Every structure is written in structure tokens, then in C-alpha cells.
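Researcher: Batch entry, complex prediction.
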Amino acid sequence: MTPRCTELDLFFDGELDTAPAAAFRDHLASCERCQRVLLGRMQEAVATDAAGAASARASLGAEPPPVAVADAPVAISEARRAAFRRRILVYAAPAVAAAAVLPFLWFKAHTSDPLALDCPIKYGSTRARGMAHVGDVLHPIASGERHRAIMVYLERDLRAACPGDGQCSEAQDKLELLVSLKEPGMYTVVALGSDDELPRPVPGKTLDELLAQCTRIHCERRTIQVED
Amino acid sequence: MVEPPEVSDRSAPESLGAALKDAEPVLKRLAERLCGNAADAQDLLQDTFVRAAGGIPPEVRNVRGWLTTILHNLFIDHCRANNRRPSHEPINDQHEYVTQLEPDGPEPEWTRITVAEIRNATDELEAVYREAYLLHTFEHLSYDDIARKLGIPRVTVGTRLHRARKKLREVLTARFALEDKP
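Model: C-alpha cells for the complex:
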């Protein structure tokens, strides 16, 4: 165990800056202990993922169905049987792999990606994640889902909405907004996503009222502390 | 002698496609946490799906857990491939120690445990550790956000999270080991 091992939680929780995170990845390449602990953290993260809990539980205890074995001719020699097995390996394995991938590719082509939200600072000197300064310009980008919206709140009050705001632009697969940060405080950016049409933003709606909708539609949230 | 590939219903296209679709959001979040940028995360996710496309092995009882292990192994391979530096690296004296220099206890079988059971197990944590764990794990707050919310230093958030996870592993390992006994 080395001092670098102490960074594992910070790394996995996304709390390391770019350079220390890269150094930790280098460390991870050769540290078996950290590799093992990281796998545990990943399994924990999957287990605490609420959306996946039900399906994970559903697969517990489900016995694998019986293996279907090809009917081999009973009177053939061992040599012919071996040749038969080799042919199955040569032709069946790629066929099974292709058959497994094709539905997924079809699924990807006919369904929308899950909602994602990125909140970089477009103009300004701030580089720390989740931090910004008055005068910086925030550049939230939402992607995925068929219909998207972005709301920016200062504390509990709506400050910008996309669509609806003049600084909002929408491409085929993403929604972008530019927000000039004029006041200090805690900003919350919420991206909403749905396969159905989203309701138009309501100016008087508070952050709590908006988040209450997140039981019905997909939401991604980021907070940014803005200082003078 | 080369054995013929085992073909079972579990590797049938519809079950694998559905399993990948089901696991994609959580795997994508994991990949982004590991890679630190969207492009590498997308590559890692694609590699994971390509590796999984060979079919779900019959002995696999939890597909999400299996896919998570594939993603982990591919990420380690990626780290090894990119590692061009000497193995010894200097550590900043100001470095924040969060994970303690102590061996981790055994991991519970996370793939057997539901989110409700994890929430239930957090009741056995001390209040300060439980609060930090719930805010981070279920409210997705950053260390800075938790520090501000609780009025504590950022490094204390890391320490509390580490202790919360350690205790939680102990509780879950003991609980599920006991349930297994006849």
C-alpha cells in the first residue's frame, strides 16, 4: 500500500483535479489493492443506483435455463465429431456474437440516449468543478432524450430557461444555454428530459416545485457556487 | 480438444440487448467517473458492450454485476496502456488523505443487495456518517456541497464518507452472511 492509495475515494468520487486524477490512473495500472477496492466501490455504486435495483433483484436467484446442445449424430467417429465441433465453433460463435449485437445496435438507433448534463464555464477564469465567479459565463449543455429543457436557478428562483431564453440554442441532439453569472450564490442547473413533449417553463415555479416533477420525468442536476 | 461453444437462452439476442439497454445508464455514469471525460467514457462503454456481445455466461446470476466487472477490467487495461510514467510518483505534502492507510475489510456481495437494504443498513451508522453518506450517495452532492450544507471542512466530508462506507460494508457483510446460514 502506498500513499497514493489514499486517493482512491477522492478519485472515484470525482473530487480530484485533472492532473492528480491522471496520476491516480497511472497508479491504478499497477496497484492490485486499489484495483480490488475500486471494483468494490463500483459494485456499491451500481447497487445504490435506485433505477437499477429492481432489475438487479429480479435477476437474483434466477437459475440459468438449460443449455441447448446441438444434436450430434450418434454413429459418427470421434474424428468426425471433432470436426463437427470445430465447424460449430467457426460458424456459430461469430453468428451468436453478431446476433447478440444487432438488436442492441437497432435499439440504439431507435431509442434516444439517456439525459446528460454538462456545465462548463465558457468565459471566465474559474477551473474548479462546481465553482465560478461573478462575471463568468456558464454554458449548460443537455443531451439525450427526445425532448429536453434546461432551468437555471439562483437559490430557489428561476433565472434562465431553455427553451425560452434568448441565449438558448437547440441543435438536433443537444440543447445549449449561455448564462451570465451576475450575482454570487448557489446556482442550480436542472436538465429535464422526456420522450414526450415537456411543459413550457413557468416563471414563478420554484426549484422545489420543479424537482417535484422529477418523479415523472428524467432530471439531471448540477450545483455551482458563484463567488465575488 | 476444442469444445463447441455453449449456446443457451441467456445469450439470446433479445435478453442480451435488453440487459445492455437496462445497464447502459449506470455503466455510463461509472465510465464517466473513471475516465473523467465523455469521449473516453463512451469508448470504455462501447468496449464493454463489445466484450459482452459474446453472450452472458451461464454461471452469471447478476448481469449488471458481470458488466460492471467487465468495465472495471477494461478500465484497468486502459490505465496500463496509458501508463508511460515510472512507477514511483511523488506525493504532494498538502495532499488530502481521505482513504485511510489501513486494509479494507471484505466486500459484501453487492450484486445480491437491493438499494432498500442498503438504505436500511445505513440506520446502523452513526448519525454524522449516515448524513454524509446519504447526501453523497443518494442526493449526489459533491464534497464541497456537503461541506457547505453541514458546515464542516471538505476534508472532514471525505473522512466521514470513508468511515461510513467501511461501517456499511461491515454491516452488510454480517447481515447477508447471517442470512445465508441455515
